[in-house]
Design a protein that fits this description.
The protein is 65% helix and 6% strand. By secondary structure, the chain is mostly helical. The protein has one domain: Arc Repressor Mutant, subunit A (Orthogonal Bundle), CATH 1.10.10.10. It comes from Deinococcus radiodurans (strain ATCC 13939 / DSM 20539 / JCM 16871 / CCUG 27074 / LMG 4051 / NBRC 15346 / NCIMB 9279 / VKM B-1422 / R1).
Length: 181
C-alpha cells in the first residue's frame, strides 16, 4: 500500500527546502559555513509531525474512557508484565520506560480512578506492589482490541519489511541519543 503526505505537509516541506536553498544562494548546502542543509531538519520535522499524529491517533482509542497516554501506558504495562501480586513501583517504572516521579504521578491518578490498587508488603511496610483492579483489567481488555486495530491501521502503509527497518532505524537513533552521540 502506498500512502502520500497530505498537501499541507508536502507544501510545508517544499517551502522550507526552498527557503533554505534561497539562503544558500544556490551555492549548495553549507556553502557559507552558517546556513545549514535542509535535509536533516526536514527529516526531524517529519519525525516530530509523525510523533504528534501518532499520539492523536492512539489517544482516540482510550480518551473516551477518561485516560491519557500516560495512564494507558501504565495500565497496559501492568496488564502485560505484572504477576498476580503486582509490580513494585520501581519495576513498573522500568518496564514502562518512564521516570520514578512520572510513575508516582500516574499511579496516584489511576488509584483515584479505581483502576489500580496499591498493596503494602506484609514483610516490609516500606515496600508496596501495584496491580490492576478488576475494573482496570476489564477496561484494558475492553480497549485492547481497538488499540491493536489502531496500531495495525497506522502501520498499514508500510510493508512488514519496512516496519522492521523502521524499528531498526528508530532503535539506532534512540540508542545514539541515549548514549549522548
Amino acid at each position: 500500500m502506498s500512502a502520500r503526505m497530505d498537501n499541507d505537509t508536502a507544501a510545508l516541506l517544499e517551502r522550507i527546502r526552498s527557503d533554505w536553498a534561497r539562503l544558500n544562494h544556490g551555492q549548495g548546502p553549507d556553502s557559507d559555513g552558517l546556513t545549514p542543509s535542509a535535509g536533516p531538519m526536514l527529516t526531524l520535522l517529519l519525525l516530530e509531525r509523525l510523533h504528534a499524529a501518532l499520539g492523536r491517533e492512539i489517544e482516540r482509542t482510550y480518551a473516551a474512557s477518561g485516560l491519557n497516554a500516560a495512564g494507558w501506558d501504565l495500565l497496559l504495562t501492568l496488564y502485560r508484565s505484572a504477576p498476580p501480586e503486582g509490580l513494585r513501583p520501581t519495576e513498573l517504572s522500568a518496564l514502562a520506560a518512564i521516570s520514578g516521579p512520572s510513575t508516582s504521578n500516574r499511579i496516584v491518578r489511576l488509584l483515584e480512578k479505581g483502576l489500580i490498587e496499591r498493596r503494602e508488603d506484609e514483610r516490609d511496610r516500606r515496600s508496596a506492589s501495584i496491580r490492576l483492579t478488576p475494573q482496570g483489567r476489564a477496561l484494558v481488555t475492553h480497549l485492547l482490541p481497538a488499540h491493536l486495530a489502531t496500531t495495525q491501521r497506522v502501520l498499514a502503509p508500510l510493508s512488514a519489511q519496512e516496519q522492521r527497518t523502521l524499528e531498526e532505524l528508530a532503535g539506532r537513533m534512540l540508542a545514539g541519543l541515549e548514549q549522548g552521540v
